[in-house]
Design goal:
single chain, about 290 residues, alpha/beta, Rossmann fold, N-(1-d-carboxylethyl)-l-norvaline Dehydrogenase, domain 2, 2 domains, 6-stranded parallel sheet, 3-stranded mixed sheet, about 50% helix, elongated, binds nicotinamide-adenine-dinucleotide
Amino acid sequence: MTRIAFIGLGNMGGGMAANLAKAGHDVRAFDLSAEALARAEAAGCLVADSAAAAADGAEAVVTMLPAGRHVAEVYETIFAGLPAGALLIDCSTIDVATSRAVAEAAQARGLAAVDAPVSGGIAAATAGTLTFMVGGSEDAFARSQPVLAAMGKAVIHAGANGAGQAAKICNNMILGATMIATCEAFALADKLGLDAQAFYDIASVSSGQSWSMTSYCPVPGVGPTTPADKDYQGGFATALMLKDLRLAMAAAKDAGADVPMGSRAAERYEAFAAAGNEGLDFSAIIRSL
Ligand code: NAD
């Protein structure tokens, strides 16, 4: 049993903290939301009245927060109460620069830190089947593994600090671009008089195949059951896809990388979200074509 502080008990963090408690860890939880705290308590966590109180004396701290500034703010309040060598595991999706900066700040205080963003949505967080992509030293990665394994099905070492975030945004940049490419191919096929099911049957076993087509088909009634079959409710919200694409564009700018397809995907998702579609699953972008 490890004494773990869990900070950020929202859509994702709520289920993750519950799975750590279920695995027998001593979980001290904190969130700004009283409702989230009540849910964590019902799931077997001890609730704290501040992030600092949750982290006081913890061996490991897991954060699942909206953005980099939240992680940086929370880290500043908890550093002082952590024992030497405590491990910070940030599972939030945040910008690479902040991720590296907070890890350096932690290491300068004699703490260990990894970034461990996730693939898989709310259902996977609840079921404990997330995939974690981890950035940090070999030693910190090894120490993070048993904690992350209680919340996921795969824990993969991506490289040094920040590499987990890099893997996450590069993966989701592919996803944004392939989803739009898949949607526009279905739209063109339709205009050419080609039946959507017939096109799926062909493209899904041809070189146009991708996860966006065969696991997450954006056309209702075609392929496996996806958010398209539920009027694009649930799934991975357009707002979250846009967040990840913005992070990818910022990282590309900092790194001087040329990302023509990713930047076009970001523009299309900016426009789609601004038209009032932020809450729809990201595959609903087919409606704009
Ligand atoms: P959410 O908004 O539901 O949860 C965030 C929680 O953090 C909220 O409960 C909020 O009250 C809390 N919070 C904010 N500032 C805080 C502070 N200073 N101290 C304590 N608590 C604070 O968001 P989510 O959907 O759970 O996403 C969390 C992270 O996971 C994000 O970085 C997101 O990009 C990433 N992510 C989400 C999904 C998804 O499908 N929702 C999938 C993969 C990754």
